[in-house]
Amino acid sequence: MNMEKRQKDYCLSSEKDDMELRAEGTTLYIDGRELSELDLFVCRFLDILEDYSPYTIISGYVAILFGRTRSTEDIDLLIPVCSYPSFHSLHDACIDHGFEFLNAEDAEGLYSFLSSGYGIRLCEKDTFIPNIEIKFIKNESDEYSFEKRIQLIINGRTFFISPLEIQIAYKFWLGSQKDIEDAIFIRNVCRDVIDEKLLQDFCKSFGVTYESA
To answer: CB under 8 Å, gap of 24 or more: what pairs does 29-34 form?
Structure first.
């Protein structure tokens, strides 16, 4: 595909001072936050995906959902391993709804990528950024992030996200400035709903000192 495609203006609203995070049981709600163009892009894809597979959102977009104002080029999702016919149906539905895959492969090639542990990327036609990367669950951390996923509701829309404790510890482990800032942001914004003992355990598991987190 032509890589010189235009980038849509997916600027994030910075007017989030009135946001409020609350929990009802295991579900988190963010009140006072309007969905951004980036969020709406993600929702358009999730509306397709949820007909074929459950998912969990991981990495930087989690921080953005909680109000961190920064740009991102991609949204990372984990899905359970599925059969090729199931993936082929998802592939065709994405194409039918105006998405295209950035990997230069047909459905069979894309499925082979996923089965080999690699991610595949897709975007809306005539754009390149933002894009969505999908990976199959492949290890214990992925499995935990999926099995313990959190329902987050923003302005009536549901997003399933990785548990905050493993997300924070993993971001500190990655160690880049952006990742550390994401981790600190999530920890501070979500302090009242984070299990500190569990966070400490994950920090130990990732080899991150709890004090640094």
So the answer is: 29/152, 29/153, 29/154, 30/65, 30/66, 30/67, 30/152, 30/153, 30/154, 30/155, 33/67, 33/154, 33/155, 34/155
pLDDT greater than 90 at residue 68? yes
DSSP notation for 87-122: HHHHHHHHHHTTEEESSS--HHHHHHHHHTT--EEE
Q: Is the pLDDT of residue 9 over 60?
A: no
Bigger pLDDT: 36 or 70? Answer: 36
**What are the boundaries of each domain within the chain?**
21-205
Of 55, 121, 44, residue with least CA distance to 82: 55
- In CATH, which of 1.10.1200.10, 1.10.3120.10, 3.40.50.300, 3.30.460.40 is domain 21-205? 3.30.460.40
Q: Are strands 20-24 and 27-31 parallel, antiparallel or unpaired?
A: antiparallel
